[in-house]
Amino acid sequence: xxGEGDIQTAHAYREIANIYKTLGRxxxxxxxxxxxxxxxxxxxxxxxxxxxxxxxxLAMVSQSLQNYQQAIEYDLKALDxxxxxxxxxxxxxxx
Length: 95
Fold this sequence. Notes:
Structural class: mainly alpha
Number of strands: 0
Largest sheet: none
Number of domains: 1
CATH superfamily: Tetratricopeptide repeat domain
Order of helices and strands: HHHH
Distance between the termini: 40 Å
Number of helices: 4
Strand content: under 5%
CATH architecture: Alpha Horseshoe
Radius of gyration: 14 Å
């Protein structure tokens, strides 16, 4: 059974955000993407790979709303996670 803090709920929120994206409804994208981010961060921490695309989507929507500073912050979060994951994978190759 799925609850508010379940990964399946986060995936459902992501899908709802994608529908809003298709409809061009930026506020819906923001609302449901942020809900998905919150669940994933609570379950897996702030450096999980599922967050990369969510943050990038949030950055794109923020940019379309001319909230450029917020867009930069979201893209920097996505980049930080990518660097963190890449660094862990490289280290694992040489251990």
